[in-house]
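User: Predict structure, ligand iron/sulfur cluster.
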Amino acid sequence: MGFSTLNPQPSTLNPVSHFSLELPTIQNWNCHSCSECCKQHGIFVSEDDKARIEQQEWTAEDGVPEGQPIFVKEGGLLGKSWYRLAHQPDGSCVFLDQTGLCRVHAKYGEPAKPLACRIYPYAFHPAGSKVAVSVRFSCPSVVQNLGQPVTDNRKEIRGYANQVVPANVRDAEPPELTPGTRLDWSDLMPAVEVLDSLLAADDVPVLIKLLRVLYWVGLIDQSKFDKLSGDRLAEFWNIIAQASTEAFGPETPLSEIAQPSRIGRSQFRLLAGQYARKDTYADDRSLRGRWRLLQMALTLTRGRGTVPAVQDCFREVPFDKLEQPFGNLPAEAEEMFTRYFRVKVQGMHFFGRPYYGVPFVEGVHSLVLVYPVVLWIARWLAASDDRTSLSKDDIVKAITIADHNHGYSPAFGTWGFRRRVRNLAQLGDIAKLCAWYGR
Ligand code: SF4
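Assistant: Predicted complex:
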């Protein structure tokens, strides 16, 4: 149960607030009108949105070409149908003008836009007695922490939450910890807090923090929880967190971490290739388009020759180029990665219904994998520009590309994708991939 830009649920409007909001305290944001969100997301519209936009009577004089449909109907064959805004041939929203501005906003003001556009980049997730607010890093302003503190936007965010969060949100079942193990919210939330505290440590680089997180979650994966609850369980989360900080101290020699296995690298390339894609409604969905995707997947699995350019910002470069050391990360990378992971954790944006229904441990594995994925994509951006070191802009763009899909691409919730994450965890390759692409 995640409530966000992609699935506002107007039928569950919540006129009276029965929940409190937990906002990320380390994140700034304001819209800087870059219009990136209008070029890549599917905008689903409620009945109210649709009726309002129909009343606006858009014509060719307003810049919406004659014959251009405004809405596209989705679903409906056997189940429910719904509408989304149509897209222009380049994949951008039907209302985006040539200067990158929204025609609805320009003509009728911000409140006239679809609810999904107004809510972006916020997302709302059940967190026991509260609703956690997460932020989407597909927005470049979010990645760069531009604007005023999110907490200053509380009133506006509260208004959005009241429109999309169901009144019975506090009845939501807590997600599983591991397959078959489900704790009460009161036992689960302290684990989320300890996870956040591991990521908040300011005496070690983000790579060490992630190695600690993997160690900590590995101990959870091996434990039984039928006799632990309340204070004793809260103590357990902290004891194993302490063990993880002792296992990976500030002086941990990262050069001694083994290289990822051959099979792990092959699985990772496929996974990273999926993250690097930007699927829009302008994509070729024909048999030929699907055949092309299959060919790309095979090339990524083999890892020989050149990396197939999965979107326009990439050039085809030899696979080997992405495996060379790229040196120190840009100075800003530490802060951006730390904030990314903490906002996702504080916003409950990594497991349960907001993340394909996966259990906590699997969600942590998927989240940590974003680190090597972003660095692989950033290397590809740099190599496409004939560079052998990473810039801040490479990292910013790579995070926007990866987060566009993380938790939102339907492909990431499939059995095949999830099996890939589980394989990498079982092979012990996630930590090795973090160290390999972090060098
Ligand atoms: S309606 Fe406006 S804000 Fe929403 S996606 Fe289209 S152009 Fe962007």
